[in-house]
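Worked example 2:
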Amino acid sequence: MKSHKGQFLLVALSAGWALPSYAIEPMSVTSGPIAVVPQMSIQLKHDDNLFTTKDDAESSMISVLNPSVEFVVDRQNDAYRLTYAIEDGTYDSNRNEDYTDHSLTAEAILELTSKHRLNLTSQYLKEHEDRGSNNSATGDKPSEYTDKKIEVVYRYGAADAIGNVELTGSYLDHTFDNFKSINESRDRENVRFGSTFYYRVAPKTSGLFEMRYENIDYNLSTSTLDNVETKYLVGVEWDATAKTSGTAKMGYMEKSYDSSVRKDQDGLSWEISARWSPLTYSVFDLSATQEFEEASGNEDAIDSQVLSLSWTHAWNDRLSTNVMLSRMDEEYSGISRTDETDTFMLAANYELQRWLAVNVSFTHTDKASDINSEAYDRQQANLSFVVSF
């Protein structure tokens, strides 16, 4: 998987995730209180620039199998879910790039009382980074890593109360499993705490104030990248009509390093996510973020801005399409480098049966950089079949 947050967003959109669950309606197999939901996707892809190089690009056909199974328990106001998924990719022209990813996710949604709600999420991931997806040195095959994640979200206040308070906490252990001599400098632990106060200013609109604190501790004792990141955001959350909804936040962010070798960073931060539905079957989604990304090469950090706009339209009960445009600007601190990445994605989804859907997509990526060797063009085509039961 991609290591940069911005790159991950682009990959997620270009893979067709903007389409609503491929439109299929999976059936569950019930065993007592447990509902079991199996699902499988089969993808045939072509990538004309596997390693995101400016010259001498390598291309390949790629087949990806992605089976998953979900166990769900609903109990009055509470819900529990356990999901296991495998993603197995095979490259026709370069078998060194083959990979097998695993993910195990456990979730609990608890409504303790009308004023107390608790969401718990735990994940164990065994995944990979595509070669050429970041600025770090790579070996002769993808780097593999293990992520262990825990997230807790507690919310106090009745749904119709004027004020609500949300407290969050999370822990991430990010450890590379191979090429340790190359990757051990990127092993790290992230501990984050946050609090958000919501104040209802209209029946379906709330103002908010949010604070976040994140301690990022690199495992290598000689690392100079240990830092603390803080954010202070104000904004609004709205669901004013059936046609518009969203959240907009803006504020200040700061990244302070333990080592004087690194330069502290600060600046504006924003997070905008808005949806406009002029028709029940046609949706526009706007997303905009500015945040710091962790270094993956010789830089201190990356000041990243991402803007994306997508349009999803259901032409009938079976056929839907999605168009996405995005722009990512990255300014590197500690080195002289600025990147600009434009992405265009066009996708269509057709539901053949309740349990079978087919998705086709095409993605074009154009990256410019003031470091000439980092610029590239890339085209990716994808044909997917999603099968449920």
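Residues 5-17 form the longest helix (13 residues). Residues 1-22 have pLDDT under 50 and may be disordered.
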